[in-house]
Specification:
5 copies of one chain form a homopentamer.
Chain A: H1 2-10, E1 14-19, H2 24-34, H3 38-45, E2 52-56, E3 59-67, E4 75-83, E5 86-91, H4 99-107, H5 117-130, H6 132-152, H7 156-188, H8 196-261, H9 283-304
Parallel strand pairs in A: 1-5
Antiparallel strand pairs in A: 2-3, 3-4, 4-5
């Protein structure tokens, strides 16, 4: 703890990153050192906050949602306390998207090393927003793959996959959406802690958030469209199956009937009215001709209906 | 009644909770003691109000909707009169979500015992908002269960269950939605009764309300998506059933026809043209071969169509 | 006419209610007595106005839509001229929802008898808004009935009834919606004719209008949901019908084929290859066994597919 | 041209109506006489503008869309230059909805003859807005007719007609929608050319535009609803057809099978096991009984399923 | 580089167009000459910006999206730096829609040669917006073609084509939409670089963008409508196919059954109960009559159902 006090004298900005905040003493200690507002501290530790900005006297309290890992859609809350000369962050779990920022600090590259606290906060928030792009790219790839499948050979599993994709996009939208208001509020509210220049950088974050929302919405509409295409091609397939059944049944059922008639056993000897055809010289060819005519007529009807294409 | 007058002298804040307001005298008595505005008092007793905030000179009148019990979606109106040193609440029925607040008051834990009336009102409103979460969790569980069913083995009853779930979410949305405006108005309108600090707490209530709306909307979209999945899998099943029917019928109908033909009774003795096949040395094997060829050809056609997968 | 002039001296507020305005002289006479603006007077008589508020110098002109009768969805225009000491209303037809207000005036109960013109106008507008609730209740009852039918035993007529219900709700929404703006404008615009106290009452009308819109929207979404449920249960029924057809056809078509084969008349005396089965000692039992095996195999296949549940 | 200059001295307002603006000289001449802004003049002649209001120093430039003819949905651009003492209009084609206004001017009835330029412009704009009502009435009639057809006897052509109706309504909406902003801007922007009284008249135009939008939206929702009804009744019909097929096939296929069995030619003389039924004293009645029992059982099953209603 | 410095002295406005910005030196050189803000320069080179306007002290930074080629829907980023006396543009690829502007500059026609930098920027932005119209026209043509196909003879491929069309329109909407805000911001924000007159011109660009959005939305709704029409006509076709199958099967299955019955081989010599019909004098005509009666009755039933139309 005393180290932190010391560091605050030596560096332009101190960034304290608290992960898996189980230790209540540590947290209250940090609260004392940096003068963190108790209500905000409660929010920081309570992990079901919505992304937001809250102004306290000499402090900004920001809650953002970070994706757990590359391409995942599980989110993790990150709370920021931004004050003169310090940034304190609280993360739920180990593993984050800040490695890049840490590298830049370690190597001392870029302006991050000498920057004031607002720039440090921007760099971290920017890393969080950028962390959403890989997840969206993955969704985009899935969508493209499903598009190919659905159009060429729709399978029952496709609809489930599309449903899962839509659900993921819904969750991403729910995570991304409030960040728009968050950045808007940071840019617009002119808090003294946020310098005019950092505001220019935050404008970029805002633009990225809007872009993320754009992509999510486009993907969602495409996925909805694909469900329609899927339903339609299932219908078309059913149509095709039924057409084959109908053609085969329609042609052969009358033929079978004719054959059945001449398979009846009426006693020709009792009366000349009983099935005289069976005794005709060309009875069998006549029956075959009758069948051919019936089949031909029906085929012609079916062809006229346009079912043979 | 006189008791209440006394208590007002002894405590920082008096909370009077009126349940099942049938007694008109009691109500007019309370109205006199606390100077409750008659129009607001009418609204408090009339149980079909929409959540709202109304400012009277030295009083805030707030109507909120509370869920009846854990996981239920029936709502009950709670009217609040918030004034200097007192909070009067009117509930429709016994049974509420204030037990937690009462416990804290009884045990004297937290700041609730010494707090001013605005904090007491906040604590009660917060309890109301928190009361919606279990109902939503229950809906979420139902949704997850239905998702499993619909994807693995859709049943006709699923669609009815999804319909009921959507209706419940619709009713929850209708109940939650106006609270957003309610909290927004309490935070924004700067009524002298609401201290700056309580406003910070009310911001939390507002955030929770927005979160509740988010969840309701997400669940509703998921339920709508599941209905699509359900309809689609019903269509796919129909397709499969029809394919089996078509394959069986398409193969056997021509075979039966051939068999019927050779079951005809044309008189072979009358003429050599009448069914000479019946007298061939290999007539029967020829007929069987004809049938096999026909079946084979159709199977090949069906296989080519991709219906055997 | 002179009577009206007299009355204006004797009463706090004069309410003139013009029904079936065919008499142009009467109307221009009234226009002169109360100084009604000619453009507004034209609007009042022209019966296709949208609910609105228009301010003239010392006068408010309000157009509202009233439901014709309890539970009907046909609307009738009511125009109000509200001035210092008078309210003039123009109705299209006999029969309205003001009986209640008239009763209160006749009996002299409540504040209506001594009230100023703004309160009288409020009382009438309130009666109009309250007149929508029975129509919505009727729609709600129809919806509940249809819900029961659609879920338990969907009939083709249900879809037509749902369509009519949706159309009625659409028309109700179109009628109610502009009243929201109407009341909002009366409350917000601070016209000197509307006292601060009446504004409190109008807030209630506004709340009722919002509540009406809420209910209409909820009912519309429920009706849309029921159409989905209906379509889905029709699909499920088709599935069931097709499953029965497929099971019966799939089992019996191969059996019939076998029977047909042994019904062929190939000449067994010509060659030992011709249908030797017919002469076997256990030929018939063999054929029956063959049929049983075929039927059993297909039943097993169908059972495995899960179509027998 | 000189005539126009003269007229400007003699009349309160000069209205110049340019139709089929091919003559560039004429247009530049008019531009000089009335001091028309060149950018606006370009817009007036370029016929793909969106309805809008643009203020130039001492001039208002208004573009509106007029329906070509009664009941048509093709629109034609009308550009207005409104200045002190003159209105210049540019129309694409001959034939407009201004005949009524011209009549009033010719007969000198109403205030149109002595009115200032803003009133003249209002009269023309009002005529344009009123011109949309017949087109909507025609759509309403078509919708009603289609409603009757779809509910009583849906035909494949209905869906195409509904599609065309929806497309027409879409185009009408696109044409009407920007006029709302146009009138709103004329009323709200307080341009010195528009007198306070004309603003009252323009409020009426605004109301009509809102009403038009209301009707278009209602019709569009009704048409969408009818498409659902149509799809549903097509499904119900398919269901009915399939039920008849299934009942007939389910009952007769087993019967035919039984008949086929007793049509087999197993040699009864070879063995007592071969088709002994054929030699029974009551063999034929037994077979008929078997068939009746089978048919009866299946009919009972079908009746129990509720398919015979 | 020095050339550019010279040119800045000689011309009213210098337009530098950078294509395929691989050369970092060139870019930093330009940055120095024109004093381009480094953050904006980064954005200009980073090709995934959203259309936007950003104000720097004496400079406007504008990012727009240009369509690659006539009728294509691939977009390319164009970044503008607009300052006193210069416009610097950065394009991703060769090939743009500025040829028209270049021609006007080369030929010295119009005001473009002597115009200030804001007019030059307007001319380029106008060319970008106008570049969207051919792409939309192509979509419109595709839509019309598909409409004809879907209504007259729907094919499975139509649904895929409609899906692709909807996707293209979605991407166009995503590209066009932010330009509306871009132009709105240029018109409204009153930056000193944008003269009042150029604002009038930019109003036209804004109008075009709104018009583009209108067309895209109309096309999207039409495409969605066509998918419904397609699904409906597929359903109607299935209905027709099933009706033919049902009629043929329903009529012939009972007939075949009758024929099968009289094809049974019960031994007439054993008992007078065994198939006495076979020995009747008019047995065969009786059987044919029975069949005709059955077929006639079923045809009458089917005709009554209205399935023969």
């Amino acid at each position: 703890m005393a180290d932190i006090e010391d560091m605050r004298k030596d560096f332009a900005t101190v960034w304290v990153d608290v992960i898996q905040f189980g230790d209540a003493d540590l947290i209250s200690g940090l609260g004392k050192i940096f003068g963190l507002h108790s209500l905000a501290l409660e929010d920081a530790v309570n992990t079901h906050q919505r992304p937001k900005v809250e102004e306290y006297d000499d402090q900004l309290f920001v809650v953002a949602l970070m994706l757990d890992a590359k391409g995942s859609i599980d989110t993790e809350q990150v709370a920021f306390f931004i004050g003169e000369g310090y940034v304190v962050t609280f993360q739920e779990k180990r593993g984050d998207c800040f490695e890049n920022v840490r590298d830049r600090i370690r190597k001392g590259t870029g302006r991050i090393r000498t920057a004031s606290s607002d720039y440090t906060a921007y760099a971290l928030l920017d890393a969080i927003v950028d962390g959403y792009f890989p997840a969206l790219e993955k969704s985009g790839d899935t969508l493209e793959l499903l598009e190919d499948h659905v159009i060429s050979s729709p399978k029952p599993s496709n609809i489930t996959e599309l449903h899962h994709l839509k659900r993921d996009l819904l969750l991403l939208r729910r995570a991304i959406w409030p960040h728009r208001e968050l950045f808007n509020s940071l840019i617009r509210d002119e808090h003294p802690l946020i310098s005019k220049e950092t505001r220019l950088f935050l404008r970029d974050c805002y633009d990225h958030t809007v872009q993320l929302m754009d992509i999510v919405e486009t993907y969602r509409e495409m996925a909805s469209g694909l469900i329609d295409v899927h339903l339609s091609s299932v219908s078309m397939k059913l149509n095709e199956v039924m057409k084959v059944l109908t053609i085969v049944a329609t042609i052969f059922i009358p033929l079978s009937f004719i054959a059945s008639v001449y398979g009846m056993n009426f006693d020709r000897e009792t009366s000349p009215w009983n099935m005289p055809e069976l005794g005709w010289y060309l009875g069998y060819p006549f029956a075959l001709l009758l069948m051919s005519a019936s089949a031909g007529g029906l085929l012609w009807y079916i062809w006229k209906k346009g079912w043979l294409q």
